[in-house]
Fold Response regulator.
Amino acid sequence: MTETMRILVVEDQPMLLLDLIDQLADRGHQALPAGNARTAARIIGTKIDALVTDIELGDGPDGLALARLATSSHPGLPVVVVSGGVRPAAAQLPAGAVFIPKPYRVADILAALKGQVLSRAA
């Protein structure tokens, strides 16, 4: 992934959100922050290249519902779902999405996104 990606990052814990956004920016990507699924749903209507979402997002829809919404409106969108408490079954994830448990490494998130881009390009 050498080109800049617009990555929607959804995390309800402000410190984790800011940290991930900073790390993605340091690697040349544009991260669009959202603290909950409602805010993220509005951003999904814009041009995004990928989604990284936590599962547990407080009040409102969870990250799995958000990931399904994103992939239904953007088929083929690379999605990484993260969580420190919930371990989803593969059937709960949108087709092609990758689950990474917290704590995660940003390199693992980017590798998962790149893998999805490459598999869809083949």
About this structure: The chain has a mean pLDDT of 94. The beta strands are 6-10, 30-34, 50-54, 79-83, 98-101. The first helix runs from residue 14 to 26. The domain at 6-121 is CATH 3.40.50.2300 (Rossmann fold).
